[in-house]
Amino acid sequence: MVRLTLDLIAKSSNHFRRKMSHSLSQHLRSLTHLNFSNKNIEDIDDLSVCRNLTVLYLYDNQITRICNLDFASNLTHLYMQNNNITHIENLSNLQKLSKLYLGGNSITVVEGLERLSELKELHVENQKLSPGEKLLFDPRSLLSLASSLCVLNINNNGIDDIRDLVVLKELKQLCAADNKLHDVEELEDVCSHWPELHRMDLSGNPVCQRHKYRDRLVTVCKRLEYLDGKQINDLSRQFLINWKASKESKKKPKELGNMNQQLMAYPLSVDFNMAENLHPGYDCISNVLHKWKPTQSRRTCVKVHSEPPELGSEAARRAPDIKLPMRPLNNMADSAGIHRHVTP
After folding, report:
1. Spatial contact of 75 and 55, defined as CB atoms under 8 Å apart
2. How confident is the model at residue 133 (pLDDT cuts 50, 70, 90)?
3. How far, CA to CA in Å, does 77 sit from each of 16, 74, 118?
């Protein structure tokens, strides 16, 4: 098993060989960049002497755990892609870290990033997942990165939903190609929360086959410059925005017309208690008025008795008639406008 140790660092340091006047400890303390990529390293030993380390290259190795990096409080760049890492852990002390490369590992959950408030780029593409498995995101880590993360690479991770990423308000570049995203409405909603988004790659997702997929995202992402590797110019964007506005303006009259048709489908109701107070004979025509239909275009008159006589009495046969115009009653106040006309 190959371990990354201080001795291994000293033996491989050409700079140290050229300056033998310095002690090993002085040399290790002065190191800012360390490159041990593709060295079959499986584990990291205690490197706390290298306290000024800012960039560490450990990609293309056999490392299974992120460990013994607590000393590197000045580390800004960490390259550990293409290893055998299964968990993101032991990074809490790396509070100056701005770029983290963990692609090509076996990570199933993006977590353990709660203390990395300076992280600008996160690369977790091409994880070696089991069939049917997808990369997940810990909400606590996402909230911690909400105001700092600008670049996110999640290519080829079986992802079918990115609504959890909506909290990343400062996101400028999203690489999510070769996943399983299919809902264009979901993408529109999420992208509307990323006002700084300049580049986005969704190629290889089922959503790319949806009708007007590109046009819809271009109109939502006001500052998007590249989508799926193709540039978006201001003229094209403005044309699509105007087209969308014109389409929505045409929908409004149609929607209002449909609403009016729905309203006319229901008969109007009248409060006949108010009508009865206006004239004592109104209760005789209540049944007739309730049968009135709004679709009736012409005005009709109904003859009723001016006084409420008893049915079949002599007074009923001799009582004067009243003609009432029948018309739509829009409200209670309109009912007060009904006048009676007494025939001679």
Report:
1. yes
2. very high
3. 23, 9, 11
Task: Specify the pLDDT at position 81.
Answer: 98
Q: Average pLDDT for residues 215-223, to the nearest whole number?
A: 89
Q: Please, which pLDDT band fits residue 247 given cuts at 50, 70 and 90? A: low
Tell me the domains of the chain and their CATH numbers. 2-246 (3.80.10.10), 272-342 (no CATH)
183-188 long-range contacts, Cβ below 8 Å, gap at least 24? 183/207, 184/210, 184/213, 184/216, 184/217, 186/161, 186/162, 187/162, 187/217, 188/216, 188/217, 188/220
Of 99, 18, 29, residue with least CA distance to 71: 29
Structure token pair of residue 13: 């340091």
Residues 6+ apart with CB under 8 A from 290: 270
Under 8 Å between Cβ of 160 and 133: no
Report in angstroms the alpha-carbon separations of 343 from 119, 146, 268, 281, 301. 91, 81, 29, 15, 12
Q: Could you tell me the two tokens for 261?
A: 């048709």
Closest residue by Cα to residue 270 from 333, 336, 332: 332
H-run or E-run covering 226: strand 226-227
pLDDT in tens, 326-335: 555 444 444 4
Quote the CA–CA distance of 72 and 88 in Å, as a whole number: 16
